[in-house]
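Homework help board

Subject: predicted structure for assignment chain

Our instructor gave us this sequence and asked us to write out the predicted structure in token form, then describe one feature. I got the tokens but I'm not sure how to describe them. Can anyone check?
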Amino acid sequence: MFSVVIPLYNKQESIYNTIKSVLNQTYTNFEIVLVNDGSTDNSLEVVEKIIDPRIRIIDKPNGGVSSARNKGIEEATKEWIAFLDGDDLWKENHLEEYNKAIINNKNLNWLFSGYTSRNSIKEYNFIYHKKGVLENIFVDLLNGIKIHTSAVCINKSLYIKYKDLYFTEGINNSEDREVWYKLCCIDQSPYYINKSLSIYTLDNINSLTRTNQNLFFLTMLDRLKNYIKLINCHDRKILVSIIYKINKIALYNRWDKTKKEEYLNNEYFNKYERKFLKIVPKKIYIEYVKKYN
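My token output:
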């Protein structure tokens, strides 16, 4: 039924618990496709000590988290692909709840659930108020529904029909959101389970997607151009507004955290400068250019 795709890169401290959270599932018809993306620590050794015939280890040179996920998708043999990052956890009824939803709702293309975000101090539950087949995912995104990688499950047939639904390689941020937005354009009525069934761990600093980040998120609309054509004008406006809102938050956060010269010298900043001006107040931008130009 399920192929659980886990990308692995330098997660020796967390990968054991991640895999055990899958092996402890109350629903047992699954395989684990673990893609070791050239780990340089003891991650692979930790995995190899776990003996279970449902675990398949794919070893490849380092290519980034998108490359690892894509390899896992290609190697998956089951009908449904469920994603799980190497520092996240599943609650024991995760796959059981997904299986129930699939059995009771024919013709589903994808589904996802609520989740818990956890750091060393607090936990935050992200559970949307609706449940079941959603009428319009774009309206729900506007109203606050969250899509998290380790909570997404996709019918593998979509990857046969849509060849560019795979994760974009060569970028290290927004590649997961890109896939979720494409899914929303393909099918606006996924199934939502309004329970927290996975745990997103915030403390791991080794994540492939949290180091050396560039401004790739500014190219999101260009990467979605073939999919935006699939949706109506109303939904298109909602999606664009959501993307701009996320970009605004990301840019403001990076404003304080990065070297300011990065913006003026960055190819994506220069290419999307007009869009940037719509997001950042012009007065701030002018002061910024005077100081760093």
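Reply (TA_rk): Your tokens look well-formed. For the description, you could write something like this. Residues 172 and 209 are 5 Å apart (CA to CA). That's the kind of observation they're looking for.
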